[in-house]
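Handoff note, outgoing to incoming analyst
You'll be picking up this chain. Sequence as last confirmed:
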Amino acid sequence: MAGIFAAIDLGASSGRVVAGVFEGGDLHLTEVARFKNGPVEVGAELHWDFDRVYKSILEGLVKLGEFAAARGERVVSIGVDTWAVDYGLIGADGNLIATPRHYRDERNLLGADAVHAIVEQPDLYAINGLQFQPFNTIYQLAAEQLQRPDLFAKTKTLLLMPDLIGYLLTGIARAESTNASTTGLIDVKTGAWSKDLITRLGLDASILPELIEPGEVLGKLLPAQVSHPALADAVVTVVASHDTASAVVAVPALRAGGAYLSSGTWSLIGVELDQPVLNEASARANFTNERGVNSSIRFLKNLAGLWLLQESQRTWAEQGYEPSINDLLADASKVETSARIDVTDPEFSAPNDMPFRIQNAVARTGGKVPQTPAQITRCILESLADGYLVAIEELEEITGRKVDQLNIVGGGSQNALLNQLAADRTGIRVVAGPVEATAIGNLIVQASAHGVVSADLAKQREFIAQSFKPQTFHPTTTQRSAK
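Most recent structure output, in case you need it:
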């Protein structure tokens, strides 16, 4: 037996510890722990409840040990993936000196203005290749520098969220490269920290840890973190720790004509390239160049995702209306609406009363305002499908590739209505699944590092397609224009 591998998989609304068992030529997943995650308000600031999240992770590792022991096995390796851009600051005593801030905190706009006063956006794009998103780490750090310089004075090491968890588990501080590439401080051409940019912004380069690649072993669990005998020999193996990078690993058939869509809280749509694209067209269309496994480039666009629906559901629940997601989608499938919103608009990034903001946005453009939850849901899904089409047309224009298949992975791949709308709007085949793409990609990188599966990415994807059969949606209408 290969032993048990585990993925600590943190998303913006929940976290999990998932056990992976490789046997019989397949990968079998067992979710041994799940816990809630989300922003908390501290005065006027938005933070993560990191102490609670980390406590939940440790409790999940106990359950992982129990799972392994029940099978008469040991835990071989643990990998960590989370959302990107957010960070913790570690002091000289090795402890966190402040609760990590949430990427939706409004301070980021202040940071963006400060950075662009020093390095204009076109010049910044030429260095880091990132689309403008006000929550990118570079802007968060600029805001921190302006508002809390005392924190930087105490800081020895800055760690992005998955690196922070890896550090607490092993005592070793490193920065995983795919996630580091989302900070805005990495030179997109070399994959190294951009010392020139860091200096120009007045940041202290010494707080940025050494980079480490997916597949490298970070270290053994600290004795204090070995909470079950089955964890005694476990190591933390670095994975593609940006959750989207892990999800892209798990796209079952990403051939030359294929684009991927990691569908969840966000919609991240793009293609896998060997080199970054830094031309005027890619900058104008706001595409980003982030690193993937094997030094690949995830050339993608970040659109609003099912966050729009999740926030709407939260508002409706506060008003006493709490249908299941399946009932809500069934109702949405029975209505039609011409209402549309721009899913790239930052207006929809903040929490609270999403239905009202959607209705306002539709009214401003002269559209017929959706009134019922079913109509608002349909508006969201139709608008997302429009966004997918625009992004695919931009991808084709910028890269010169013809996209003939959209591979949707992640939680959103379960949304059959959205999948069919995407196929109809784009006029191409949609292949949906696996749902657990992020955890699968996390586990595959670990298993490859420990010799359990092939080191060849194409063969890994074949293995995934065999273990997790995707579902195909064919266009039923011709709607190849959102304009």
